[in-house]
Write a structure and sequence with these properties.
This protein is mainly alpha-helical. The chain is built from three helices and two strands; from the N terminus they run H-H-E-E-H.
């Protein structure tokens, strides 16, 4: 998969994970390790997006450069 395709998939999946219907699932009065579930969900989604973007940037090696 090319880096450009991976970035497009990351954008769509990241956007889909941050819409209100999915945000309402962890938005409950539950504490996990002393933190609200919504905060942990948002941090996990953010960390996953950053990890995929870093992996795409490292793996591209300039192959998609114009």
């Amino acid at each position: 998969m090319k880096a450009r395709d991976l970035l497009a998939v990351c954008f769509v999946l990241g956007s889909a994970l941050l819409v209100w219907p999915l945000l309402s699932i962890p938005n409950r009065p539950v504490l996990i390790l002393g933190l609200p579930a919504l905060v942990l969900y948002l941090f996990a989604v953010w960390a996953a997006i950053v990890a995929v973007l870093a992996w795409a940037a490292r793996g591209s090696g300039g192959e998609d450069a114009p």
